[in-house]
Specification:
about 0% strand, mainly alpha, about 60% helix, 3 helices
Length: about 170
Amino acid sequence: MAGDQHSGAPADGHNKPDGKPGPGGGDGGSKNGKPSGPNPAGGSPAGGGGAAPSTSALNQQVVQAAAFSNYENADYAPTMVATPPEIMVGQTTGLAVQDAANYMNAIMQIAVAAQAVAIKKAAEDPAMAAAEIPLLTDIQNMVTQAVQVYGTVSSTAGTSAKTVISDLKPS
């Protein structure tokens, strides 16, 4: 009786005359190991637990594509969603690295200013230029240490964040 004017069901057999999904019409069957239909998890799409709405008036390929997309979203949601503790770990890590970058930038600004003063003094009195060499060496050491601090903080923060976030994930 599928497809006649009195049942309201389409002739393609996707819905039974009672309005429930039939073969290929969201019956919860499986293709490639993944449920198909409007809501593979069961219940209504809104999660209300009621019966899924009739899709007999819709293009079944579109319904199947939407169902597949919903299934994929639900399947991969845990990997795409960041929980508040994960967000806090990420923010803390970012702030630590940003602080280390600010420290390195400040040291470099001090170094540039000190180099400018040393060069000015050397230009004013070439005989005293040799006295500025230890100062310039100390400045370079400060910059090198600041860069090392930045690298250490970045590496440690990244490793720590990865460890904490992996500890938060259920096994």
